[in-house]
Amino acid sequence: MLGKQSIQFEKKPYIIGSASVVGSKEAQGPMGELFDKVGYDDMFGGKTWEEAESILQKEALEIAMSKAELTKQDLQIVFAGDLLGQSIASSFGMAGYQLPHVGLYGACSTCGLSLSMGGLTVSGGFAQKAACITSSHFASAEKEFRFPLAYGNQRPKSATWTVTGSGAFILSSQPGKQTLAAMEGVTIGKIVDYGIKDSMNMGACMAPAAADTIRQNLEDFGREPKDYDKIITGDLGEVGQKLLFDLLAEKQIDITRQHMDCGIEIYESEKQHTDAGGSGCGCSAAVLSAYILKKIREGIWKRVLFVPTGALLSKTSFNEGQTIPGIAHGVVMEHYE
Predict the structure, then answer these.
(1) What is the value of pTM for the model shown?
(2) What is the pLDDT of residue 159?
(3) What is the pLDDT of residues 230-286, one digit of tens each?
(4) Does the residue 3 lie in any domain?
(5) Domain that holds residue 280
(6) Same domain, 291 and 216
């Protein structure tokens, strides 16, 4: 343990394979050419939006295993999660693999949560190889949390667009032929609630949690923002980014030079009409696989703090007038020589 909330691995887990599978809108964005696979009809051969999301996960895992030159028999455990009730995208998507399964829910922070749990498991010697998978789908998320697509509701400018995408990562206790990054440690986030009730402003709901985890990571590891090449949040979008900077400024912390947000980078907001940017479990996961790990592997970025953010609401809590708490988990990744 380091400080209050962080863990520094004595034996570093290695990310030896990853994959990203996205929908048609994501393929039209700035990172379109970097993703491993695109489903241009957004149904991915399924009959429902939920089935399509399960297929996203299966395809991402298959590609990640292929890149790592592994089969499912080489994996000891799977950590998977999504946004849907009872995590049905993951449970139906992973059922056919018949592997020990840990279902996770961290809302849009699930990529960071799965990597944290996978990293702890591998570093602790409880598994040699683990898979970490998450996904989201615009249509299934709208149906779950907001309105069915046929309703045609208007979106405020503060809204973020749920990414149709999945990211899968293979963690190993030993480096692979193409090691993408080493995991130095994690900062497990706290639930932070600023009393916000607007489900159409996810950035405002999640920014306080992101600020809290980033501040705590710097304190626990004894670092300053300049010690990271990039500090990357997952899903804040343009509204959340501004709030993040303001909240950290109150603590005399300035990350404006290092900061990047996956939700801002994955779309061209004006051109693609995505309002404040992207969000969803698949947002940070797809960008991590397609873009961030590429930069780390090439040594362009030597050390990165990756902080996916989640809003811990359900349709029940929202309809009962509850606030929307946030959470953010930090994962420290380093270039592997």
Answers:
(1) 0.95
(2) 76
(3) 999 999 999 999 999 999 999 999 999 999 999 999 999 888 888 778 889 999 999
(4) no
(5) 181-334
(6) yes
Residue 159 sits in the same domain as residue 188: no
Same domain, 98 and 190: no
Residues 138 and 166: beta-carbon distance below 8 Å: no
Say whether 118 sits in a helix, a strand or coil.
helix
Amino acid at 261: D
DSSP state string for 80-109:
EE-SSGGGHHHHHHHGGG---EEEE--GGG
Looking at the structure, tell me whether residues 165 and 195 fall in a common domain: no
Which of 79, 50, 37 shows the shortest CA–CA distance to 171? 79
Residues 280 and 49: their CA atoms lie apart, in Å, by: 15
Task: Provide the pLDDT confidence category of residue 147 given band limits of 50, 70 and 90.
Answer: low
Q: 308: alpha, beta or left, given left = phi > 0 and alpha = psi -120 to 50?
A: beta
Mean pLDDT is lowest, of 84-88, 111-115, 185-189, 290-294, for: 84-88
- Say which CATH number the domain at 82 has: 3.40.47.40
